Amino acid sequence: MEEIQSQSDNYRSSSSSASSPASRVPSSNFFYLRKPGSLRQPISFEDSPEWEESEIDVRVEDGGDSINIATTPASPSLSKINSGSLPSPPLPEGAVVARKIAGASVVWKDLTVTIKGKRKYSDKVVKSSNGYALPGTMTVIMGPAKSGKSTLLRAIAGRLHDSAKMFGEVFVNGAKTPMPYGSYGFVERETTLIGSLTVREFLYYSALLQLPGFFCQKQSVVEDAILAMSLSDYANKLIGGHCYMKGLPNGERRRVSIARELVMRPNVLFIDEPLYHLDSVSALLMMVTLKKLASTGCTLIFTIYQSSTEVFGLFDRICLLSNGNTLFFGETLACLQHFSNAGFPCPIMQSPSDHFLRAINTDFDRIIAMCKNWQDDQGDFSSVNMDTAVAIRTLEATYKSSADAAAVEAMILKLTEKEGPILKSKGKPSCAIRIAVLTWRSLLIMSREWKYFWLRLILYMLLTLCIGTVFSGLGHSLSSIVARVAAIFVFVSFTSLLSIAGVPAHVKEVKIYACEESNQHSGALVFLLGHLLASIPFLFLIAISSSLVLYFLIGLQDEFSLLMYFVLNFFMCLLVNEGILLVVASIWQDVFWSILTMVVMMLSAGYFRIRNDLPRPVWMCPLSYIAFHTYAIQGMLENEYLGTSFAVGQVRSISGFQAVRSTYDISEDSNSKWENLLVLFLMAVGYRILAFALLYFRVGKNISLNGLFHRKQNTNNPR
User: Fold this and answer.
1) Subcellular localization, per the record (predicted)?
2) Is the pLDDT of residue 542 over 90?
3) Nearest CA-CA partner of 285 in 227, 234, 230
């Protein structure tokens, strides 16, 4: 404490001396280093304004759930910003005013989150954090990278991973009850949007997946969400663009992801980094939009890394974190006063958020050390500013003994001493409705996304034409069997390889599922059934077009029943192939592993070496039984050659089974081809069951279900 006090005193004295014009340092320097013998400053800035104490009057009305906050601004300049220096444009005549939303008060008390191995020196990612968020306000959690912002936000929202343990209490309207479905929304830092849909279509399908009731009732909800996020000009534009048309900019995409959660009209909205990857103009527009949303009554809690002065002025409360420690919680203007009291006043021409992060971000120590070594080598300077560890300890100690911390504790006590209205669940649509919605949405996506099936259809047709012309004119003699077997093997194997063109689309589908599942908008079974039903028409189109071309080019038997079996067999191959791609997309999400999987199955399919001659430990069992190529090729050859005979010389003839068995292992049973078709059908079902397990357990493992942390806090609370 003596070191902290001395460093703070040095800073205060240097700050007062810096106010004179002679001692003022050029503002172009990011940080300042003094010559030997000069006064050593912890963090040297230009002179700062004198901040007066702000009077905060917090009133909780008895008999109601409304909370009134009256703040007397301390600074005329920043109070103008905080009250909205950016006036909203006037609404045109006939414009629809956004509906009011019943917000909810959220309180977190002594919140500690531990994740094993997350920190180098401690498993505590968040340490004894206290705070609250009120209806109609924006509460921001700010701090440098790896300070625990997202972890604290997830802990409050109940979205922690299974590896994290939470201690402490979270209250919603004064009660320790889990927030039911539909009462809150959570927007991830990186969300996956469907680029082939327009903004209105995307939100409409999201509403159908989230809300029960009739379809016509959800149109008004979608329009309200579009209005709330200022997306009216982009409502009919494709999110990802089309052909030479550009998609939505990053700012509008971010607002679409927030609007998806607004269709539920949540009481509380959590947003992880709303300004992620946004420029200054888009960031300001985003925050003005969120400020307008908060004015409707919604409780907003979000994280932020850095902001401009204009954006900072829109915040109502700020929770400042560094290495999991809470350095301040309270009004934004009071945070500036807190830094000034601790000896770190904010310069006039510097953004408050830049000033905060400069003081508490330990990454600046490396920059200072690097510049110190360079300047020491030059022989000009030898002393550096105070390291951020001392600044963090100073700010933390000052906050714990300040009136701001006492005011927070008093406010938490008022908000938790009496329970308010309990939030009610909005209800969910039935599984049948969600399957129908996902099927129709997937059909629309597949029809518009040319890389999904249309590219594969073109590639399949080109490949089939190449194979058919290479193996055309074979005739029906005994010598044509080897070439025809090769043609069928190449057709089945190479088409399975070309299906890898659809892997990126499958990976994106899995990401969309994970995003919707995290907010309980979808489920593994619903997703798989919707995807299967939507893909069947496209797969059948590919199967019948490719099979017809190949069947007649290589001269297979001209019989309708045999042709239909050939088409059905190849259709089952495509279904199995889709199931394998879903499994690969759920595990690796990489094209390389898809190629490797198909190549291994091709090698064990029994063409390069008869199946019974394959090495038993690995290639014959289990690989040859897992490879769907084996059963598809067997069924096609049995369909073509069983019941036929070939003349050997002028006297003797052999059956088709005897002629093919030396080239490929088939059965002489007449029902064997149907057994192979049944195996393909079971494999198509089996791979989708495996995909269901992977989606449910592996993808869902990283998704904390709503209310999980409430159960944990009751068992892990040390008190």
Assistant:
1) Membrane
2) yes
3) 230
Is the CB of residue 168 less than 8 Å from the CB of residue 108?
yes
pLDDT of residue 243: 54
Strands 138-142 and 55-60: unpaired
- Segment 613-637 shows an average pLDDT of 87
Q: What gap in Å lies between CA 405 and CA 411, rounded to an integer?
A: 10
320-350 as b/e: b if 16+ CB within 10 A: bbbbbbbbbbbbbbbbbbbbbbbbbbbbeee
- Over the range 92-116, which residues count as b (16 or more CB within 10 Å of their CB) and which as e? eeeeeebeebebbbbbbbebbbbbe
Q: Which of 695, 689, 684 is nearest to 524 (CA)?
A: 695
Phi and psi (nearest 5°) for 376? Answer: -65, -40
pLDDT digits (tens, 9 = 90+) for 548-597: 999 999 989 889 999 999 999 999 999 999 999 888 888 877 778 888 88
| Residue 189 exposed, middle or buried by CB count within 10 Å (0-12, 13-18, 19+) | middle
With CA atoms as reference, report the closest residue to 485 among 474, 496, 469, 499: 474
Give the single-character DSSP code of 344.
-
* Closest to 157 in 3D by CA, of 293, 57, 272: 272
Helix spans in 450-520 (H): 455-470, 481-498, 503-518
Least confident of 4-13, 275-284, 481-490, 644-653: 4-13
Write out pLDDT tens, residues 92-115: 444 444 556 677 899 999 999 998
Q: State how far the Cα of 585 lies from the Cα of 509, in Å rounded to an integer.
A: 9
The DSSP annotation for 59-76 comes to EE-TTSS-EEEEEE-S-H
Cβ neighbours of residue 527 closer than 8 Å, sequence gap 6 or more: 438, 509, 513, 516, 517, 695
pLDDT of residue 678: 95
Taking the C-alpha atoms of residue 31 and residue 364, their distance in angstroms, rounded to an integer, is 10
Structure tokens at 95: 């414009």
Supply the pLDDT for residue 119: 61
**Which among 630, 304, 611, 613 has a CA at the least distance from the CA of 493?**
630
Long-range contacts of 9-12 (CB under 8 A, 24+ apart): 9/343, 10/39, 10/40, 10/41, 10/42, 11/41, 11/42, 11/43, 11/343, 11/344, 11/386, 12/343
Distance between CA atoms of residues 718 and 551, nearest Å: 72
At 608, phi and psi to the nearest 5?
A: -70, -30
Percent of the chain topping pLDDT 70:
78
Confidence at residue 711, expressed as pLDDT on a 0 to 100 scale: 36
Q: What is the DSSP letter of 232?
A: G
